[in-house]
Amino acid sequence: MKILVIEDDRIVRTLVKHVLEKEGHEVAIAERGETGEKTALEESFDIIVLDLGLPDKNGLEVCKVLRDNDIKTPILILSAYQNTDTKITGLNTGADDYLTKPFDNKELLARIDAITRRVKKGDAPTNVYECGELRIDLVNREFYVRDVKVLLTNNEFNLMAYFMKNPNRILEKDELTNNVWDINFDTNTNFLNVYISYLRKKIEEITPVNYIQTVRKKGFMLKCGSDS
């Protein structure tokens, strides 16, 4: 794979480059946000590893610019910021995953493999799934409520897609996090609940129907029957 690493810390940058090249990947390096942003806009990559604390601009700004320019390359944030709010902000800005420093080399590789597997899975389906007033197009990555197009972040879309492919079934938190993000998150945190609330809010702006229901002590269910 061709990977772009945007990282200003020389030690971390050298380590990541060494680990990735040892696995046979082609690695391009950018030490500043502006440089990384320009490189990502001009060249094609399989994945981008992005630091947040860059010297010239925050990595979140870089992420937003790339997504605003319709760059769909998967982005793995690699940052020393460990608080949940920063992680959620990063993912909500358009990143596909978030790994905190210090990190284990094996976990870095596992995260990259998980993201690329997810992207490949998303390329294959040609189906459009429907649930009552909801419709999702996996190929064009579009989501509609009552034929109104609703803009979702990458992570919101992936979560909604999993719900749409598994309607009227109780989905436990572990199943959702493992299949949507391919990573085991601490289910005691409100990480998943935050994304559920994002989806509910966007759906409820158009319809009063309670589609994503909480099943107490079990998980969540996308209810597609008439009694939703």
Q: What gyration radius follows from the Cα positions, in whole Å?
A: 18 Å
Number of helices: 8
Mean pLDDT: 87
**Could you tell me the strand content as a percent range?**
15-25%
Shape: elongated
Distance between the termini: 44 Å
Provide the CATH architecture of the largest domain: 3-Layer(aba) Sandwich
Low-confidence stretches: none
Strand neighbour order, sheet with most strands: 2-1-3-4-5
Under CATH, the topology of the largest domain can be stated as: Rossmann fold
Portion of residues within helices: 40-55%
CATH top level of the largest domain is Alpha Beta
SSE run:
EHEHEHEHEHEEEEHHHEE
CATH superfamily of the largest domain: Response regulator
Number of DSSP-assigned strands: 11
What do these coordinates show?
- The protein has 228 residues and is an alpha/beta fold.
- The chain has 2 domains: 2-122, Rossmann fold (3-Layer(aba) Sandwich), CATH 3.40.50; 126-222, Winged helix-like DNA-binding domain superfamily/Winged helix DNA-binding domain (Arc Repressor Mutant, subunit A).
- The chain is built from 8 helices and 11 strands.
- The protein has helices at 10-22, 33-42, 59-68, 84-93, 105-123, 154-165, 173-180, 191-204, and strands at residues 2-6, 26-30, 47-50, 75-79, 97-100, 128-131, 134-137, 142-145, 148-150, 212-215, 219-222.
- The chain has a 5-stranded parallel β-sheet with strand order 2-1-3-4-5, sandwiched between helices.
- Strand 8 and strand 9 form a beta hairpin.
- The model has no long low-confidence stretch (mean pLDDT 87).
Structural key phrases:
228 residues; alpha/beta; Rossmann fold; Arc Repressor Mutant, subunit A; 2 domains; 5-stranded parallel beta sheet; 4-stranded antiparallel beta sheet; 8 helices; 20% strand; elongated
